[in-house]
Specification:
The structure is a homodimer.
Chain A lengths: L10 H12 L4 E2 L2 H7 L14 E3 L4 H14 L3 E4 L18 E4 L6 E5 L4 E4 L5 H10 L4 E2 L11 H6 L15 E7 L5 E3 L33 E8 L1 E2 L3 E9 L5 H13 L7 E5 H6 L6 H11 L9 H11 L4 E9 L1 H16 L4 E5 L1 H17 L4 H24 L34 E6 L2 E3 L2 H17 L5 E6 L4 E11 L3 H21 L20 H13 L12 H6 L7
Parallel strand pairs in A: 2-4, 3-4
Antiparallel strand pairs in A: 1-2, 5-6, 6-10, 7-11, 8-9, 8-10, 12-14, 12-15, 13-14, 13-18, 16-19, 17-19, 18-19
Chain lengths: ~575, ~575
């Protein structure tokens, strides 16, 4: 996989042509660069080594790069900031493609504070936009994900990722894309192609066929700009966290939340994590204890928490079987009404529910400080003060994220099986792919019904166990009717055998959810060839559109293009 | 325009083939049928006469019809129920096409009461689905428009129409389409193409490129089924109606409502109509008075209300310059909070605002009955009772529509310039196209800003005046950032000169809003050739997709296909 494709007459000429476009420092094919882009949380076997990396600063350069690519018959793989962790990271679907990284195109082209939207380029990160909105006192918030401040908004949106706010279903809050096609033509969607348009970013559909959806999870063009809707700051924001004690409580929990999601009481994406998801946010895998125990066991290879360590971590973190996290937005009266509705619904499930807002956190911080001072003589007080401080810090991060301020701490879970634990300075510059984290995600969608969540859990838990992995589960109430589960396989990437086992496990989980009809909302680069087992009309139609828009197949061959992805050589799994 | 295309070797053979598929009674080319389908609210000059009409009952028949059409090289024009009034009605974009009317495909395939959605065929009308949901005690509501109970949901959705409820932005509440392509292949969008899918109608995007948008406002396929999300019945529904006295109050009104739409207080589409829109809902044009006046005037031809009649109608209807109509949904507490926010916002504009719910209407009806009885001797009481009864009836219809029960009475406006007034039995079986109503719509989208609404009004009002037409305006707050204006040209279709003048006026209005950058969200068949004045990349891309999916151009040539529409012969206008 790490071999260059040999069909290119002259990489030297290609690089020369690219350097002419972007400057020498932004067209690179040295070994270190290629290595860096070939790192993946799925392990080196699953990574692809690019032909070269080029970093344009403007659309005109993207157009010129595409012309060069067509001339040299090189495939280009566009990235925003390349932080598609757990799904292929900065790797192309096939080896030997030319990475076009758009991180330097990071202009916030426009912010309209009255109509609440921004126009941004692919390099704009969620941290950057959040900082801009704050420092310009716009009173607007941008939806953000838990992937930290340095990740691209456009990149995530084009993968149809989702965040935590009422704008968390991100693709529904995009209007007006600008796309460079393989031909070099520039396509503006919606009304944006009318030069005189006054409504390019206000009404996504425009007139005539709506094309935006085509450019998400596809390889039909290079999106160089899009309009993203921003949320007016709510007068009142109340976070709630609820826990239930037993595994099987997940079912009633989802059934209790569904009516609130359906009737609009819960306008934001609600997340439900299992105990290990909570634990992994605050601790790394206790290798020492586990290795000691494993030595004496001599059973099948396992990366699971030994029972004593598990009990200990659960006790220390206070994590229950399931933790719900959601947020209410509105006027004081609206939030009060919503809080009552959430409280009533969750009470029926036996959940313990806590609501908190900025004021409550301030109170908590005050109490922690008081305890700390008061307890100068008492270890018990010190410990309580520290625990409360931690809780307040987590609460602050959650509430900030709900208001569009990203926080790298939520990436901690990705470092669970990293032997070195969290890197120095974490979460500053955290990058799970380059920090050597082993991580793969399978993300099936299921009906928003307790019975389905329990069925999915019952389906995948034995597969994780069989392959010797702990199961990290999140269920996100992504819209009013569907839940998106994110199942995490965390592994020690420095351990080749464990990495291989993780990949077999991932494939088994993937196959199981596909067969059960819980289909993935998004897939990693390795799984793109598995999306069309039946030679379906849907994928034939997608292929015909691809051929119409990019007849040479220049852009990202194999990306959400099952037939082509299958032809790219992947190591056999399973 | 009414001539058959002569390229078909044998219409007799074609009809024979069609009859074999659907049965003789459902494949028709007799003169009466062709005449009936060639009626348009835009007048006979703007209508196209089809080659024949075929009415399949199932997808398999649609597939067979397409095979026949390809073989005979006939263009097919799919309709749902053909009630696209004001935008082309049941007419194809070009003459001599084979109308495929899908009204007989009217199965409600599935209703899931837990997850709140239905799967419907194109023939399902909003009245039919509403009745089903009521009679099965589903506690679910379907969004509905003011176009009456007999109009197709699918037809309206594919034109990207909008209704009145929180699900009024209809395309956003669709998941999982089934589409017959020109080739006869059946494409299922979203997750629906995976046979084992459990989430086909719960998560529209599926995995891979999202194709749904392609099949709205286009001619890429024949949609034969779709999943439509239903709204759980709200515990509390409160309608509000607000009025302002002066034309220029429209600006502050929109500016006052925008924050409420943006922050989610107003979750449904809010409509603002001008005085004549209100008047035309309760009265027809006073031809006698106007003709008398015109005779003595001898000025330029005008279809406008003479000033005395206008004053009289306004006084009698009580219509103010602008009337806002919207609805609040939720728990009692939520609605109370929203009501307070709306009241405060509208108070700043000087609007008079009234809220009413089912209970208030019951009280009103009681008072009207009492007045009627009490006033047996008093004409004043009788008149008050009648006026109150009318008001209650209108309120009931509005509130019912907000809860998904369509009402034909809102079609009355379409009959404004019909010489015969409302037909007997109205609104039963009302069909403005076949009832001879003269009606055309121009529907520009504008930013949700008072200044833009005033600018648009200032732009179009003189054009209507110049061509001698009264201006009927509605401004609908279609999403959180955009307003869709519907500008109505109402004319006497029995008057050829007036019809010609109306078309010139329509074209002038269309050109003006296009040039001003207030672009139409939807257009009539006559205007489809005007959508691409610049030979834009957008339309080139659309044409490439069309060629990829329908290389023979079998389906609806010209429909949202400007280059082809221009080649179809339309009488010159202007």
């Amino acid at each position: 996989m790490a071999e260059h494709d040999t069909r290119y007459a002259s990489t030297v000429d290609l690089m020369q042509a690219l350097r002419t476009i972007v400057g020498a420092e932004y067209a690179l094919d040295d070994a270190a660069t290629l290595e860096r882009y070939a790192s993946s949380t799925a392990g080196s076997q699953a990574a692809t080594r690019p032909l070269a990396v080029v970093r344009p600063a403007a659309s005109a350069e993207v157009i010129a790069i595409l012309a060069v690519a067509r001339r040299f018959e090189v495939a280009v793989y566009p990235l925003s900031t390349g932080k598609n962790w757990g799904y292929g990271d900065a790797c192309a679907v096939g080896a030997g493609q030319l990475i076009v990284e758009l991180a330097r195109m990071n202009r916030i082209v426009k912010v309209d504070t009255e109509l609440a939207y921004a126009v941004i380029e692919p390099g704009v990160t969620q941290g950057q936009l959040a900082a801009y909105l704050r420092s310009h006192h716009t009173n607007l918030w941008c939806d953000c994900t838990g992937a930290g401040p340095d990740t691209s908004l456009v990149g995530n949106i084009l993968e149809r990722g989702f965040g935590h706010s009422p704008y968390g279903n991100r693709v529904q809050h995009v209007a007006g894309m600008r796309i460079v096609l393989a031909s070099g033509e520039v396509l503006a969607t919606g009304f944006g192609h009318y030069r005189q348009s006054r409504v390019s970013h206000l009404f996504a559909a425009g007139v005539g066929p709506m094309l935006d959806g085509l450019f998400t999870q596809s390889n039909f063009g290079v999106v160089v700009e899009l309009g993203i809707w921003l949320m007016p700051a709510a007068a009142c924001v109340s976070q709630f966290v609820a826990t239930v004690a037993r595994q099987q409580d997940l079912g009633p929990l989802i059934d209790a939340l569904r009516p609130l999601r359906l009737d609009g009481t819960l306008r934001s994406v609600v997340h439900i994590g299992n105990d290990l998801r909570v634990v992994s946010g605050g601790a790394c895998f206790p290798f020492a204890a586990a290795d000691a125990e494993a030595t004496g066991r001599g059973t099948a290879p396992s990366s699971r928490l030994p029972e004593p360590a598990r009990r200990d971590l659960l006790a220390r973190s206070g994590a229950q079987a399931w933790t719900v996290s959601g947020c209410l937005y509105g006027s004081a009266a609206q939030v009060k009404a919503a809080r009552a509705a959430v409280r009533t619904a969750l009470a029926s499930t036996g959940a313990r529910t806590a609501f908190f807002d900025q004021r409550a956190l301030k109170r908590g911080a005050g109490v922690a400080r008081w305890l700390d001072r008061a307890g100068s003589a008492s270890a018990w007080c010190k410990a309580r003060a520290a625990a409360l401080s931690n809780k307040v810090a987590l609460g602050r991060a959650l509430l900030a994220m709900a208001q569009g301020v990203p926080n790298g701490r939520f990436l901690a879970g990705a470092y669970w099986r990293r032997r070195g634990g969290l890197p120095a300075g974490f979460p500053q510059c955290a990058d799970p792919a380059r920090d050597g984290c082993g991580l793969m995600w399978v993300s099936p969608v299921l009906p928003m019904r307790g019975a389905d969540a329990l069925k999915l859990h019952a389906l995948v838990a034995p597969i994780f166990a069989r392959h010797g992995f702990d199961l990290f589960e999140t269920y996100s109430l992504i819209n009013e009717r569907a839940v998106c589960a994110v199942l995490t396989i965390a592994f020690d990437r420095d351990d080749a055998a464990e990495t291989a086992r993780a990949r077999v496990c991932k494939r088994a989980v993937f196959d199981a959810v596909m067969q059960a009809g819980y289909l993935p909302y998004r897939v990693g680069i390795e799984d793109m060839g598995l999306l069309d087992p039946d030679g379906d009309v849907f994928w034939q139609v997608a292929a015909r559109i691809k051929a119409a828009l990019d007849p040479q197949g220049t852009i990202a061959p194999g990306r959400y293009e099952p037939a082509v992805a299958r032809r790219l050589t992947w190591p056999a799994v399973g």
